[in-house]
Design brief:
360 residues; alpha/beta; Rossmann fold; 2 domains; five-stranded parallel β-sheet; 17 helices
Length: 360
């Protein structure tokens, strides 16, 4: 077992990518490691002709995934848009791993992201000693992707200041990155493209200019459509993370995951699953990613301070932390849910008691 805490997608799923490459006889766009069809199989899962089973990386609309892949085969960049926890980053990483064989050309967008992160920087010691030169240039992930015909990833694009965002306009429209200091430019090799992600509920968002938005084809990733779909996503990710973290515990019972996901979906939607009771929603998003975090935290508690099996007491603290972001407003929402919903469900008595003990 690897000592790495988290492997890149192309490392973790190297066997699947290799099997797909061996059996993939369909046409591949320039510099793609897999054809669009094989990329879709890698993302969505399936069984190959030789019997090899490819595990799904994304559970959701096949058509949305096909549109995303087809976009990357054109000269339009791809923008994955959605609320927090809709697997934007996860899908971005796996698309890059399947198409380019490398998901590491990444720019993490923040309010402090500078223009150099997208264009290029300088080795200032060398710059002062020798002046502007190729050797003094420090290429950005975007520049490397352009030179090598690979995919660059930009996470949280709308967190980046607007004037820095617009640095991408020339790159995406002209497929060229000017370097005026050297009186030269980098022209994109076939296969180059950009995958960006953006959170449409983020506070302090820097809206994309219309000029930049036109350079992207936007794919909106929805929250899981059904309870069973979301439970399946949480189960798969928790089992994968549990193996990576080497937690000495049994896989979580499906019913425990189902209770957590049910709570999140009901509070998120403002109504119970039977449609009979209206609920107040907390200030947080209660995403699938947060449900995964609650289960993982519970598994760690069960492994190191319990009997190795996930119980209601192990997930109660995680639920409290995920739901109560605003100490005043969200606490009232959660208390109301416990008293009007959880308390009335016969098979939820243990969870109700565990949550009440933490609050009292």
């Amino acid at each position: 077992m690897t000592d790495l805490l988290r492997q890149h997608a192309e490392q973790q799923y190297a066997e699947e990518l290799a099997e797909l490459a061996k059996t993939d006889v369909r046409q591949r766009p320039p510099n793609w490691k897999l054809s669009p069809w094989a990329t879709a199989v890698y993302i969505l899962g399936g069984k190959l002709e030789n019997g090899f089973v490819v595990t799904p990386k994304y559970i959701g609309s096949r058509r949305l995934v096909e549109v995303a892949i087809a976009t990357l085969a054109t000269d339009r960049a791809l923008l994955l848009l959605g609320v927090p926890g809709t697997a934007k980053t996860w899908l971005s990483e796996h698309l890059a791993a399947a198409i380019a064989g490398d998901s590491t050309l990444l720019i993490q967008g923040t309010a402090g992201t500078a223009e150099e992160s997208i264009r290029y920087g300088w080795n200032y010691a060398r710059l002062l000693a020798e002046g502007p030169s190729e050797k003094a240039l420090v290429p950005s992930p975007v520049m490397l992707a352009m030179r090598e015909g690979r995919l660059a990833r930009v996470e949280e694009l709308t967190r980046i200041p607007a004037d820095v965002q617009d640095t991408l306009i020339t790159i995406l429209s002209e497929k060229t990155l000017p370097i005026p200091e050297l009186d030269s430019e980098v022209q994109a090799v076939k296969g180059f493209n950009v995958i960006a992600t953006a959170n449409n509920r983020d506070k302090g968002v820097n809206e994309l200019s219309s000029a930049l938005r036109r350079r992207f084809n936007t794919v909106v990733l929805p929250l899981p459509a059904t309870l069973d779909e979301e439970v399946d996503i949480v189960r798969r990710r928790v089992e994968s993370l549990g193996r990576a973290l080497e937690l000495p515990t049994e896989p979580p019972a499906l019913e425990e995951i189902r209770r957590i996901v049910t709570i999140f979906r009901e509070l998120r939607g403002g109504v119970t699953s039977d449609g009979k009771t209206r609920l107040k929603s907390p200030s947080g998003t209660l995403s699938t990613a947060e449900a995964i975090s609650v289960v993982n935290n519970g598994m760690a508690l069960a492994a190191h301070f319990g009997d190795g099996r996930l119980h209601a007491g192990d997930v109660a603290a995680g639920l409290l932390g995920a739901i109560i972001k605003d100490p005043l407003q969200d606490k009232l929402v959660w208390q109301e849910y416990l008293e009007t919903v959880a308390k009335e469900r016969r098979d939820w008595k243990d969870l109700y008691r565990a949550c009440k003990e933490l609050q009292d």
